[in-house]
């Protein structure tokens, strides 16, 4: 080959290489005010799709084939966007100026598309990363209680239930919680699990809370609101982050009957995210929480005003075992026949009517574990198939202990829940599949387990021997009265005599009995749930807005399968798992008119559940009008619905305790299969009878198949940003509920229609029935909030809300558990002092006293005024922050629900590295 030919080939190769040469663009972004690095800044190229995010050191780096000069666009929440023209290769140093985000927050969940929060068609609240960093709450989930219109029930340190607009209870099945697109409900019981398997503290990008009805966009169970939680993108939020929180609670033993002394609180979290290449990134999250639990310790007597020393039928709210209640008249009559000379003592007692006596119960502390533990782990990998198409695979696992309240207290010990997701996501569409898999672990059902413990160490009555706790009590009672003691004094002496041999809570005998009962399935006479139910979900959504010119249109399909697997302990699935499927289709249409001053939208959703013959069609129509550039008025109508939960829809297996123990225990007996499985049962309402002890007050309970409940909700609201520093939001709503699902206590004596058969508590079984009330129930309320951006980074927020219920069906336990009004006040500063190293925040939450209904008891929740506070100092060179804080800083114990634990102060210090 000649030299000239070789030289020509080399020149061509050089030209070819130059034509594909790439320019590397890199640089560093800092805060113009403090000179700190700014992570998670979006760096995009105006001339093409290339770009990057700054890492935890504020650096960015990406390549492009575009010839210089090019224009880079820098944008980040809390900073002014900036365009920089790059005319030569080499590192760029860019400074961004901080700016207020008041009124500029964007949300997605209100319409399934990006829009400004102030322009949302419905009420929505948002919590971002910066809010979490500056909050005095150690857990981001507890920040929700400070939002406008939000109610919470804290059943235990690791289990908090959230709701809006009134219907508030532990384990609320009418509230939807979505984490990275996955429904966060327990597959078997259908209520959200709070933070038990949610995002870890360091991985929260934002929380968006939709108040009220939201079924048109998110399906069944969205009657009381929807919480959408979004984790951090590992392409955007990179680096190693860690946070260690060490605290102490139960500061003053004995205060508010708190039996636990000062105890440590641990909360450790680690997040590692890395962008391996322009296409691949991953993140790993681990969080562990351990502390001594807040214990429920309400000793109020649910049977009468008397206390344990004055009422033989004493049954404390949080005393377990004393629901076993028997009329001792048959034993008195037996004693009279055996010893006629006792007539002067016995005849006056029999003349009084019934003489109910409850067995002695166990307090929650020492009976249920006080060890609160929670471990969460998450792994997520993302791969960009193309710049506009991303594949996501993730797995999340949670394990721990928690307690929640329903018809009694349930201690979930070593429960496990996993969620696993695979997703393809593009700019205009996504295809997502995931599964949720639960293991109920060792569940202690407080009241019936304690009743069976009592029966195990000494039966209430042994028919074969004629002995038992009640015969011994009756004999000792008469002996003490014969010795001159009053009925009350004799009752206390008799109780002490009959209680001989009763094991102390926590003793070896007690633990052996508790374990033997709680580890025996309910289907075999114990109290153990064997719930390993699963949920499978596939969803696809497409944004057609780029194809349709006259309006913005989003459409989607969803398929969900519940595989219920409780081995007969919750569902009639002894012969194998039961499959329940739901099919859904939805669409959301938005059209702007009047020169974009008025935005009209409509959402439609079709849902079919295989347990119910008729499908449900729900709608939402709304209008948002621009009053001026920063003021908007909104109106919406929403029709929402909720299929009954699986436990309400399907027959639960009755737990067959012995006759005396069954006198006061409620069991679940619900759903469409009830009379097929138990045709001999005659159900009667016992509420009036238990109040009057008159068999004539018994009413036969007519139960029909349970139906989905629905609500028609209207809302009118107004949002305005004034002078760029004052944000106002006001609203009013009115809702009408149909086929409202509530609960009632009923009883049955198999094989008889005779009301007299119910007159003795020992001859019937009591059940907790879910059913549709015939009356339409109305709720209404209003709320307002004001946010202020003050000079020198001071911020203040005030919100007020009020909720009311009318046409209450008093035959139902309806769980409308909220005060008529509540308010919250926040004051803080995000940066002051030298280089703005210091910050602080404080919150004040007030709730007046209100009536609270729950399955096992109802009563007043006392008023509460709670102050939380924190002060922080940043170590700029170490990229770290030290926070000193406290929740309930005055240590004034309060409750968020009747029968729930009393919550005292918790004081902590937190060290956070690379948290932004």
Automatic annotation (TrEMBL):
What GO terms fall under cellular component here? cell outer membrane
One family name in Pfam for this protein: CarbopepD_reg_2
Q: Which InterPro entries match?
A: Beta-barrel_TonB_sf, CarboxyPept-like_regulatory, Plug_dom, Plug_dom_sf, TonB-dep_rcpt-like
A molecular-function term among this protein's GO annotations: siderophore uptake transmembrane transporter activity
Which SUPFAM superfamilies does the record match to this protein?
Carboxypeptidase regulatory domain-like, Porins
The domain of life is Bacteria
Swiss-Prot/TrEMBL keywords: Cell outer membrane, Membrane, Receptor, Signal, Transmembrane, Transmembrane beta strand, Transport
Where in or outside the cell it occurs: the entry states: Cell outer membrane
The GO annotation for biological process reads: siderophore transmembrane transport
Topology of the protein relative to the lipid bilayer: Multi-pass membrane protein
The protein depicted here goes by the name TonB-dependent receptor plug domain-containing protein
Source species:
Chitinophaga solisilvae
């Amino acid at each position: 080959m000649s030299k000239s030919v070789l030289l020509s080939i080399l020149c061509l190769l050089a030209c070819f290489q130059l034509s594909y040469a790439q320019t590397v663009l890199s640089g560093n972004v800092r805060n113009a005010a403090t000179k700190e690095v700014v992570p998670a800044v979006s760096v995009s190229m105006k001339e093409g799709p290339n770009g990057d995010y700054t890492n935890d050191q504020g650096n960015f780096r990406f390549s492009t084939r575009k010839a210089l000069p090019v224009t880079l666009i820098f944008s980040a929440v809390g900073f002014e966007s900036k365009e920089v023209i790059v005319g030569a290769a080499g590192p760029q140093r860019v400074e961004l100026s901080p700016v207020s985000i008041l009124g500029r927050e964007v949300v997605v969940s209100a319409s399934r598309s990006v829009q400004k929060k102030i322009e949302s068609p419905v009420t929505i609240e948002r919590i971002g990363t910066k809010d979490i960093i500056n909050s005095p709450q150690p857990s981001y989930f507890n920040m929700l209680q400070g939002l406008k219109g939000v109610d919470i029930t804290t059943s235990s340190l690791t289990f908090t239930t959230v709701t809006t607009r009134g219907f508030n209870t532990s384990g609320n099945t009418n509230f939807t919680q979505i984490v990275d697109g996955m429904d966060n409900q327990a597959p078997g019981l259908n209520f959200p699990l709070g933070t038990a398997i949610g995002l870890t503290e360091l991985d929260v990008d934002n929380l968006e809370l939709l108040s009220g009805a939201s079924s048109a966009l998110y399906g069944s169970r969205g009657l009381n609101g929807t919480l959408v939680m979004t984790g951090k993108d590992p392409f955007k939020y990179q680096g190693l982050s860690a946070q260690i929180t060490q605290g102490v609670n139960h500061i003053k033993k004995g205060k508010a009957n708190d039996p636990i002394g000062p105890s440590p609180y641990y909360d450790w979290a680690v997040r590692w995210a890395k962008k391996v290449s322009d296409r691949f990134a991953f993140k790993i999250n681990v969080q562990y929480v351990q502390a001594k639990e807040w214990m429920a310790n309400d000793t109020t007597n649910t049977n009468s005003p008397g206390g344990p020393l004055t009422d033989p039928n004493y049954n404390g709210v949080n005393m377990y075992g004393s629901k076993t209640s028997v009329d001792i008249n048959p034993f008195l009559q037996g004693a009279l026949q055996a010893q006629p000379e006792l007539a002067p003592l016995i005849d006056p007692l029999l003349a009084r009517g019934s003489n109910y006596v409850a067995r002695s119960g166990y307090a929650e502390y020492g009976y249920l574990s006080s060890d609160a533990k929670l471990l969460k782990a998450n792994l997520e990998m993302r791969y960009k198939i193309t710049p506009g198409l991303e594949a996501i695979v993730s797995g999340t696992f949670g394990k721990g202990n928690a307690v929640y309240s329903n018809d009694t207290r349930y201690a979930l010990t070593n429960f496990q829940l996993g969620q696993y997701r695979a997703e393809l996501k593009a700019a205009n569409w996504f295809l997502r599949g995931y599964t949720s898999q639960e293991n109920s672990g060792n569940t202690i059902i407080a009241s019936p387990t304690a009743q069976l413990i009592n029966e195990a160490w000494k039966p209430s009555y042994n028919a074969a021997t004629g002995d038992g706790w009640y015969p011994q009590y009756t004999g000792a009672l008469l002996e003490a009265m014969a010795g001159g003691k009053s009925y009350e004094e004799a009752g206390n002496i008799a109780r002490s005599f009959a209680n001989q041999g009763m094991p102390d809570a926590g003793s070896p005998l007690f633990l052996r009995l508790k374990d033997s009962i709680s580890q025996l399935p309910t289907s075999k006479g114990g109290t153990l749930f064997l719930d390993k139910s699963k949920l499978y979900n596939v969803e696809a959504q497409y944004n057609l807005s780029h194809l349709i010119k006259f309006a913005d249109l989003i459409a989607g399909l969803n398929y969900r399968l519940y595989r219920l697997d409780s081995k007969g302990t919750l569902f009639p699935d002894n012969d194998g798992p039961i499959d329940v499927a739901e099919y859904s289709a939805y669409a959301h249409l938005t059209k702007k008119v009047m020169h974009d001053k008025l935005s009209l939208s409509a959402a439609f959703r079709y849902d079919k559940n295989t347990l119910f013959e008729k499908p449900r069609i729900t709608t939402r129509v709304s209008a948002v009008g621009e009053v001026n550039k920063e003021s908007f008025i909104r109106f919406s109508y929403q029709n929402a619905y909720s299929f009954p939960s699986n436990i309400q829809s399907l027959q639960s297996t009755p737990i067959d305790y012995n006759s005396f123990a069954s006198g006061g225990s409620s069991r679940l007996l619900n759903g469409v299969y009830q009379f097929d499985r138990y045709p001999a049962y005659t159900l009667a309402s016992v509420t009036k009878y238990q109040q009057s002890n008159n068999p004539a007050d018994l009413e036969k309970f007519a139960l029909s198949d349970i139906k989905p409940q629905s609500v028609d909700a209207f809302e009118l609201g107004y949002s305005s940003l004034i002078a760029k520093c004052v944000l106002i939001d006001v609203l009013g709503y009115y809702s009408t509920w149909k086929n409202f699902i509530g609960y009632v206590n009923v009883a049955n004596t198999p094989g008889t229609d005779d009301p007299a058969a119910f007159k003795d508590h020992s001859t019937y079984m009591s059940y907790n029935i879910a059913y549709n009330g015939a009356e339409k129930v109305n709720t209404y309320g209003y709320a307002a909030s004001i946010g202020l951006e003050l000079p020198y980074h001071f911020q203040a927020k005030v919100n007020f809300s009020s909720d009311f219920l009318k046409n209450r069906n008093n035959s139902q336990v309806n769980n409308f558990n909220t005060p008529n009004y509540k308010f919250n006040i926040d004051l803080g500063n995000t940066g002051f002092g030298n280089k703005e190293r210091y910050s602080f925040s404080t919150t004040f939450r007030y709730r007046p006293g209100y009536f609270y209904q729950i399955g096992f008891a109802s009563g007043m929740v006392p008023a509460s005024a709670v102050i939380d506070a924190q002060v922080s100092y940043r170590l700029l060179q170490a990229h770290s922050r030290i926070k000193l804080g406290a929740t309930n800083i005055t240590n004034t114990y309060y409750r968020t629900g009747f029968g729930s634990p009393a919550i005292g102060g918790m004081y902590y210090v937190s060290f956070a590295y690379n948290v932004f």
